[in-house]
Design goal:
Structural class: mainly beta
Strand order of the largest sheet: 2-4-6-7
Helix content: under 10%
CATH superfamily of the largest domain: Complement Module, domain 1
Distance between the termini: 223 Å
């Protein structure tokens, strides 16, 4: 009987010892951590209740946060943690919100304003554990303050505030001209662009007229309304006005003339003749010489020159057929044919009367100089 009691007592002690076994650190589920003092413990006594909380950025989606150590084993973890969702950030009047990439914990939103509006506040917000961190910015209409004035200049319209894209025009007073853009625009950042122009005293550069020379008028520096007159060198003709005036924009009005070389087109051709040299264009004072074909004689000026008006001076000559008056008559003889005029190279033949004999050339021909060449023959009496 004593032995039986001893065996029962030992078994009960083993059971009690088995039931009181400690637990190691419980394994958390996804996206959760132990809470408070449970974080630092490495062993947990039998019956201990450990508590889990969802990690930063995650929120409880169901299940129990508590697990219990029983005989060295933890009860099943049923807590579920889902990523924190911040939801819609709201709306920004006259602007847009871009979600990068969405609206979960750690995501960002970027706010941009519509054209003509500017951002007031933080451009970016982040989805945090308690929702979107910070306040949504606002988009205010862009306005520009009164632009700066410029020395010796004016601008219009003049007002306290200018709306986005409103334009201001600048101008200069007196003898000053505008350098830069004459208009500036109220831009997105609330400033006028481009940069302000400047008013500089009007001065025209000394005109450069190639192949020309100054005749009269002002000398450098040429101020507003100053006038100058130029002429072209010999052999050049002017294109444009000889006189010009320094304008308000610092430019000569109506423009700087040009001196271009005088050239002549080929002169008129002539019938039965030609001229030389022959070329497409002739320079000022260049001369052409005319000549006639054989059997023709030149009437008029033999040469013409290219003149300042771009034409050859004078009228071209003409080529007339060479003719000869009748040749001299001879004593005791005659010639034939007999006519009022003879053509170039036409011949006459002499003959003597009966009882006379011919001495000299029997025939003469009409030459280029309009006379019969050579001397006429003579008729001598025959001696019996």
């Amino acid at each position: 009987m004593e032995i039986t009691r001893t065996i029962i007592a030992v078994c009960l002690g083993l059971v009690v010892a088995s039931q009181a076994q400690d637990c190691s650190k419980p394994v958390p589920g996804p996206n959760m951590d132990l809470k408070d003092s449970d974080i630092v413990l490495t062993t947990f006594p039998d019956g201990h209740r450990a508590t889990f909380v969802c990690s930063l950025g995650y929120t409880t989606a169901g299940g129990s946060r508590v697990v219990t150590c029983t005989a060295g084993t933890w009860s099943q973890v049923t807590l579920r943690c889902e990523k924190k969702i911040c939801g819609s950030a709201g709306q920004v009047d006259n602007g847009e919100i871009e979600y990068l990439p969405g609206n979960e914990f750690g995501d960002r939103i970027v706010v941009t304003c519509n054209l003509g509006f500017r951002l007031v506040g933080k451009r970016e917000l982040t989805c945090g554990d308690q929702g979107w961190l910070g306040r949504l910015p606002v988009c205010e209409v862009v306005t520009c303050d009164l632009p700066a004035g410029i020395p010796n200049g004016l601008f219009s319209p003049v007002k306290d505030v200018y709306n986005y894209r409103e334009v201001v025009q600048y101008s200069c007073t007196g003898d000053f001209t505008l350098s830069g853009s004459k208009s500036v625009t109220c831009s997105e950042d609330g400033t006028f662009t481009p940069g302000l122009p400047q008013c500089t005293e009007v001065e025209c550069a000394d005109p450069k007229v190639a192949n020309g020379e100054w005749v009269s008028g002002s000398r450098p520096p040429h101020k507003y309304l100053a006038t100058v007159t130029y002429r072209c060198n010999a052999g050049y003709k002017m294109e444009g006005d000889a006189s010009m005036e320094c304008g308000l924009n610092g430019q000569w009005m109506p423009g700087i003339p040009k001196c271009t070389a005088v050239t002549c087109s080929p002169p008129s051709t002539i019938t039965s003749g030609t001229f030389s040299p022959q070329k497409p264009l002739y320079q000022y004072q260049e001369t052409v010489a005319y000549s006639c074909d054989q059997g023709f004689t030149l009437s008029g000026s033999k040469s013409l020159s290219c003149s300042l008006d771009g034409t050859f001076n004078g009228s071209p000559p003409t080529c007339n057929t060479v003719t000869c008056s009748p040749p001299p008559t001879i004593t005791s003889g005659t010639f034939s044919p007999q006519k009022p005029l003879y053509q170039y190279q036409e011949m006459v033949e002499y003959s003597c009367d009966q009882g006379f004999t011919l001495s000299g050339s029997k025939s003469l021909s009409c030459s280029l100089d309009g006379t019969f060449n050579g001397s006429p023959p003579t008729c001598n009496s025959k001696c019996f």
